[in-house]
Write a structure and sequence with these properties.
single chain, mainly beta, Jelly Rolls, 2 domains, five-stranded antiparallel sheet, three-stranded antiparallel sheet, globular
């Protein structure tokens, strides 16, 4: 198939490109494009078929670290790994205010075991929380109620803390029933960094409301 441009016109491929210098010079080259970063020093940044190459360009660890610390990318994958116990992974600890029995422990909703967390008849102000290895920020989260689609939370909140004493409400909902379909929620603004996050079930249906899944998307 012949090579064509954006207008469908045939053209012949050429290996020649241009070299653009910051001092205004324009030179022809066969296999790369290069930019002279500073006309007063011997430094060139070249892009070719072999990749990106630099000559005479210096960087510092401090600059790199500053770039990483200030770069924020919204992650569409959960930060919390699959857990197989209340503290099965270093730095991740799950606690709950009420658990129906050993089968319905809180850590289930952070695992791939297809089990649930359910309270022992506690329908008001029941919570499940997780401690992280270090403080992080979140921008989105997902929730799924019990697999039966019944015993749903319908008034609830997502809260965060750094000391387990003062909790900040990041998101609250009323008349939002959590059934057996995963729901996704986006915060109005990215949260600050917190060490603890928790789901607060303010009011739920009889008799043992709970969750089967929770995921938080971190920066």
């Amino acid at each position: 198939m012949p090579n064509v441009d954006v207008f469908g016109r045939p053209f012949k491929k050429s290996s020649a490109v241009s070299k653009i210098l910051s001092n205004g010079g324009l030179n022809s080259s066969n296999d790369f494009v290069s930019v002279k970063v500073d006309p007063n020093t011997n430094n060139i940044l070249s892009l070719s078929a072999n990749g990106l190459m630099a000559n005479g360009i210096k960087s510092t660890d401090g600059a790199t670290r500053d770039y990483v610390d200030n770069k924020k990318v919204k992650n569409s994958y959960g930060f919390i790994p699959n857990l197989y116990g209340s503290s099965s992974k270093q730095g991740f600890t799950v606690t709950a205010s009420s658990e129906l029995n050993q089968k319905y422990q809180g850590w289930n909703i952070f695992s791939d075991t297809n089990n649930e967390w359910a309270t022992a008849g506690l329908r008001i102000n029941a919570y499940i929380q997780i401690q992280l290895p270090f403080p992080v920020a979140i921008w989105r989260f997902a929730l799924k109620g019990r697999l039966s689609g019944t015993e749903r939370w319908f008034k609830w909140a997502i809260e965060a803390s750094n000391d387990e004493e003062i909790w900040r409400i990041l998101y609250s909902a009323a008349e939002d029933y959590l059934g057996n379909t995963t729901k996704f929620y986006t915060l109005k603004r990215v949260s600050d960094k917190y060490l603890y996050y928790r789901f607060d079930g303010v009011i739920g249906e009889p008799t043992n409301p709970g969750l089967s899944y929770i995921c938080r998307f971190f920066l």
